[in-house]
Every structure is written in C-alpha cells, then in structure tokens.
C-alpha cells in the first residue's frame, strides 16, 4: 500500500523519496536530508541558548563516553550536551546532536542502562524518524497538492509547508513518536549498544526501572505514548538473542567500555 503510494508520489514529484529504514520498513520521506539536518541543528542551537547546560564533570564525561562508544559503529561526529533538567529524558536530533537530561543520571543504575536510552535516541535519528514524521504531516494534511502549494509561498498552505522546512524546536524535539517508530528505535538502539559492548539485557532493566519510577505515567519522549512498558519489554526480550550475539562478538574483540 505504502509502496504504491510512494511510487505514485515519486512519479508525480521529483522531491519525493521512498526509502527503507534500518529494520527494512518502507518509508515515505518528502524532505531532503540536508533540510532535516538543518532543522535538527537549528533546534539544538535554540535549546542550548534557552536551557541551562550542566557543568557536572562526571555527567558530561559519562554521557560523552557512552555516546562516543555507541557512535563508533554509526560514524559521523556527534555533539553531546547534558542539560539541567530533573526529568528522565534524552533526545537525539538529525545533524548528529544528542541531549541528555541530568534527571536520567538519578534513574539509571549503570552505564549500560544509560547506553540503552542513548542508543534508542540515536536509533530515531538513524531511521530518519523526524523526516518521516514531517513527511507524514505533509502527506496527510495536504495530500498531493503540497508541492503545488510550495510554488505559491504566499498562500496559507505554502506558508505552512515552508514553515515545516525551516522549523526549529516546535517540530524536531518534543512531539512524541508513534508506536512503529518507538519499536524500531528500541530494536536499533539495543543492537547499537550491544555492538559497542554494553550489555543489552540492561535495556529491559531500564524499562522496569522506568515503570517503577514513573508509576505508569509516561511523559518523557523515550517512554512516550503507544508502546506500554510491558510491550516494549516483551519485544526486547524477543530480540535479545540477536542482541546478545552482537554483545558477545563485541566483547570478544575487546570492546568493554568503562564509562562510569
Ligand atoms: Zn523514542
């Protein structure tokens, strides 16, 4: 269905691209990478300007160490910033930006649990979830006429479309992802952490801990919305044999990060 839709759009518009996510899912992406990266960079700059940044040396060291180990397999230069905020939250943005909230350090029991969160967030970026979300908005709200609207930037719809292309914090950061994207980020994230030599079983411990700490309230992005903690844990358990294989491989090649 999506494939057909993609083909129709691709035929109609040069800008359209249908790609396959890291887990093999067909995605509709209407925005070029460069544009989405620009959105991420802009949002991150705004956050750094408006939100207090932690100077806690240990937090910064640990966050950078974990992100550094995980992104060895993804490549690219990633910037990591620890923000002063008591909520159990973290995010990653297109353009290779990672934000970790100080509250998370009070929740996690070890480096591997923090690696599970950071891996999950990087998973969203690698799977282009921001671009996909913005593209769905474009497709759902405006259908086929979106590109037509863009030839007329003065129109209401044209302005909306351009706003979407140039937007900052409203779009890139705080909107919750859907269930499919959350599950996908979970799987990509747990493989990433395992490949870096972090114990993937700790991802399950993290969700249990999160469940207890929030007592069913799901507010932060990475525990957002649709998949319940129980569903996530079940899916992670199902995927664990594969992740353990990657973990053992990493350990065998001497990848034993010491970030705490
Ligand atoms: Zn997420």
What does this structure look like?
The chain has 260 residues and is mainly alpha-helical. It is built from twelve helices and five strands. The strands form two sheets. The chain has a three-stranded mixed sheet with strand order 3-5-4. A two-stranded antiparallel sheet has the order 1-2. A hairpin with a 5-residue loop joins β1 and β2. About 8% of the residues have low confidence. The structure holds zinc ion (ZN). The site of zinc ion has 7 residues, from α5 and α10.
Describe the secondary-structure layout.
Blueprint lengths: L1 H11 L4 E4 L5 E4 L3 H18 L6 H14 L8 E5 L6 E4 L3 E5 H6 L3 H16 L2 H14 L3 H5 L5 H11 L2 H4 L6 H17 L6 H13 L14 H24 L8
Parallel strand pairs: 3-5
Antiparallel strand pairs: 1-2, 4-5
Helix pairs in contact: 3-5, 5-10, 5-11, 10-12, 11-12
The structure holds zinc ion.
Arithmetic mean of pLDDT: 79
- Please estimate the helix content: 55-70%
Give a quick account of the main beta sheet: strands, pairing sense, barrel closure. Answer: 3 strands, mixed
The parts where pLDDT drops under 50 for at least 5 residues are 8-15, 164-175
Query: Strand tally, please?
Result: 5
Structure ligands = zinc ion
Alpha-carbon distance between the two ends: 47 Å
Shape: globular
Radius of gyration: 19 Å
Q: Which class best fits the helix and strand makeup?
A: mainly alpha
Give the SSE order as H and E letters. HEEHHEEEHHHHHHHHH
**Number of helices, where a helix is a run of at least 4 consecutive DSSP H or I residues:** 12
**In which order are the strands of the major sheet placed?**
3-5-4
Strand content: 5-15%
